[in-house]
């Protein structure tokens, strides 16, 4: 049998790979520069914050803004683990507390609506219809903010709903309604707006009992304090408020 | 056999040994992280929680059912790809691997667009058999994601198998079906088992397609990965416990199977 030759030459390839990957650990990671402001924001803020980010960049031509949109709890956890965020905007107070930001401002509120597929196939007219047998309902899981809000609102209405699914976030619940897989779902008013004409929203009085406050804060320890405060100022400005209001948020 | 093993061990070049060790560390360290953060004193009480057992039972049942479904459909498919000559075989093989590259969440949406209430097929028999939000839906989602692992593994074994046994059987008058059943299957048995194990492990860990297609409800569609994900939102400690349970069960099953089947 011919033994494969294992000489110095054939060792160089893995060695180069190791060196390259080490370079990458220091060189390719993060790449955060001082002219980039990083904003972690709740998924429900995707559309409005992207628009507000454009306003910020217009006023700060030397700066770039980048967003990480996701579930508030996930973002809070990432911030606690040292993710390079400068601003954190959460969809509820609990997750803001988890991020350990010392001060924050509430800049918007969101309320639940019943979302039904276009044409409302199951003829859902109010919150009591969600308990009707044969009506398939998607709620958020009780562990995520929209699920907690749904539980509060349904309890206030005195309605017991047996959902077919407890979705992992509000956008997933909206998707089920959009595709017509369920007859109704409890989502935020902003989600109904963002779905355009694909879903119809039905307001209900008990949603008052489960209003979500959206807090925003400068992440403790950031080196871009000034820019972070300026971004928050734009969110709180008249222009910012108009964007939020157009997206379906209630202003504070 | 033993002799050659020993020789290989002695002559292991450091150019291989170093990256191999680094690779192993890379795979094992996150596991060590989980073990380090596990709430050991609270573990027994957590394990006895009904929702943990419920999710575990559901995971094992659905992953096993999905593997069975993959075997029934996947082994013939692998045979077709390895043995049959037909135009467009390369394309079919590429299509089979689509679920490997498709983000599982997209796979879940795609399944909804086919089997959902308004889907291509679902709209016709959706009233009789509705898959979304059912345990059967979990099996379908897991099978969709896991089947390529089985097909690719079995196809590889079939290609490597010595064709002369099958040819000999055919010359002796066996029909193609008999050859497949009595010669091919036993010949590639270990490959099928290995593929099935891989398929089962993938199904057990499936998250994206399951939560998108089958939804999430404790007892009917909430498998362990879904329970882990949601526990992470509010109770990271519970998520670690659930992950450890899933890992322990998976490692135990795979180690047992490996000893019993794959060595042989």
UniProtKB/TrEMBL annotation, chain B:
Name of protein: Molybdenum transport system permease
InterPro entries given in the database record: MetI-like, MetI-like_sf, ModB_ABC, NifC_ABC_porter, Sulph_transpt2
One Pfam short name: BPD_transp_1
The keyword DNA-binding appears for this protein: no
Compartments where located: Cell membrane; Membrane
Topology of this chain in the membrane: Multi-pass membrane protein
TM segment ranges: 12-36, 56-82, 94-115, 135-154, 183-203, 238-257
Residue ranges constituting the ABC transmembrane type-1 domain according to the UniProt record: 56-255
Keyword annotations of the record: Cell membrane, Membrane, Molybdenum, Sulfate transport, Transmembrane, Transmembrane helix, Transport
Cross-referenced SUPFAM superfamilies: MetI-like
Record carries keyword Ribosomal protein: no
Summary of the function given for this chain in its UniProt record: Part of the binding-protein-dependent transport system for molybdenum; probably responsible for the translocation of the substrate across the membrane. Part of the ABC transporter complex CysAWTP (TC 3.A.1.6.1) involved in sulfate/thiosulfate import. Probably responsible for the translocation of the substrate across the membrane.
GO CC annotation: plasma membrane
Molecular function (Gene Ontology), one example: molybdate ion transmembrane transporter activity
Assembly, per entry: The complex is composed of two ATP-binding proteins (CysA), two transmembrane proteins (CysT and CysW) and a solute-binding protein (CysP).
Family, similarity comment: Belongs to the binding-protein-dependent transport system permease family. CysTW subfamily.
